[in-house]
From TrEMBL:
Gene3D superfamilies: LysM domain (3.10.350.10). Residues 1-20 form the signal peptide. SUPFAM superfamilies: LysM domain. Residues 31-80 form the LysM domain. This is LysM domain-containing protein. CDD domains: LysM (cd00118). InterPro entries: Bact_Kbp, LysM, LysM_dom_sf. It comes from Sulfuriferula plumbiphila. It holds the Pfam family LysM. Keywords: Signal.
Length: 335
């Protein structure tokens, strides 16, 4: 894979080069670094670069390669080559370098489960596995919880309930509830609806209505809540990189209803696929400058966010660095 990546670098189009500028190395950047369990690509990049999102630039990666970066594992060695005009990183695999000895069977498991993630998986796992933003009316045709025989209006894990029948042979469900509307603060366009994830259920008796068993609940479940097949498959296999286009957006929501977000908190941005964002995009966060004596002061940069889930009109981003809380309506743009 490394040879392939390097070959593509030599022959491929440097899609990111138009956004590349001078690489700024950390003053104490190591000549070699042995990857350890718990590292993220962001962490590793920050050991070498002042701007971690320039990871593709120092590897000479094109945009296609950004989408399949999981070829770094604990025990691998990253080597910094300063001999050329531009610093370059290269990779020595663990078995090549002799730092780790694994049987083939164990190695397969390691490659499947322990590749270095881009960002802390624990910070985004819930947001990756659940559908939190939907278009208007997306749940209108979804099966609906009717109620329970005991006339209970609040349900939880272990309860059985009846729901309208779904299409197909789905038996495992996610329980969802449409949430607040997400509107663009500048254009007032409706961007979608946040969806509240309430729990999971399993069909125990098919029919119309079908009988379901609620197997997990994170919040109270009520009649009228909707079911969606629990078939979402998503994996985060991208690396930090700058936007391919010019981005100017805003923070329009923070998870949990809080008005301030710190490191590793999730925020919702009013930009998505249609604006040219993709997973792994890094954006800078700015506070709008105050007005003093009728003079607006410059916007001040307060942190960095990394996009990890993209919908058509909005996206989720993780706060990677911040020296001030990230607030609603903060500005995001190219770093």
């Amino acid at each position: 894979m490394r040879k392939l990546a390097l070959s593509l670098f030599l022959t491929g189009f440097m899609a990111l080069s138009s956004h590349a500028d001078t690489l700024k190395m950390q003053e104490n950047a190591p000549d070699r670094y042995v990857v350890v369990k718990g590292d993220t690509l962001w962490d590793i990049s920050a050991k070498f670069l002042r701007d971690p999102w320039k990871w593709p630039q120092i590897w000479g990666m094109n945009r296609k390669e950004i989408q399949n970066p999981h070829w770094i594992y604990p025990g691998d060695v990253i080597v910094l080559d300063r001999s050329g005009a531009t610093p370059r990183l290269s990779l020595l695999k663990a078995e090549q370098y002799g730092t780790v000895k694994l049987s083939p069977q164990v190695r397969v498991e390691a490659e499947a489960d322990q590749g270095v993630p881009s960002i802390p998986a624990s910070a985004v796992s819930a947001f990756i596995s659940q559908p939190f933003v939907m278009e208007e009316g997306a749940l209108n045709d979804a099966p609906r919880i009717i109620g329970a025989q005991e006339d209970r209006i609040v349900l939880g894990a272990g309860d059985q309930a009846y729901a309208t029948n779904g299409k197909g042979d789905t038996r495992n469900w996610k329980i969802l509830r449409p949430g607040k509307a997400l509107k663009d603060p500048d254009t007032k366009e409706l961007l979608g609806y946040q969806v509240e994830y309430l729990g999971e259920a399993h069909t125990v008796a098919e029919g119309d209505p079908q009988r379901i068993l609620i197997t997990r609940s994170s919040e109270e479940i009520q009649p009228g809540d909707r079911l969606k097949p629990a078939t979402d498959a998503y994996s985060f296999r991208y690396i930090p990189h700058p936007p391919a286009v010019s981005i100017l957006g805003r923070v329009i929501s923070t998870y949990g209803g809080v008005s301030e977000a710190g490191q590793y908190a999730t925020v919702v941005l009013n930009k998505g696929k249609r604006d040219g964002l993709d997973v792994g995009t890094v954006l800078a966060v700015y506070k709008k400058g105050n007005v003093v004596d009728n003079i607006r002061l410059p916007d001040s940069r307060s942190g960095l966010v990394m996009v990890y889930r993209v919908f058509d009109k909005v996206c989720y981003a993780l706060v990677m660095q911040t020296h001030r809380p990230v607030n609603l309506l903060d500005i995001v743009r190219n770093p």
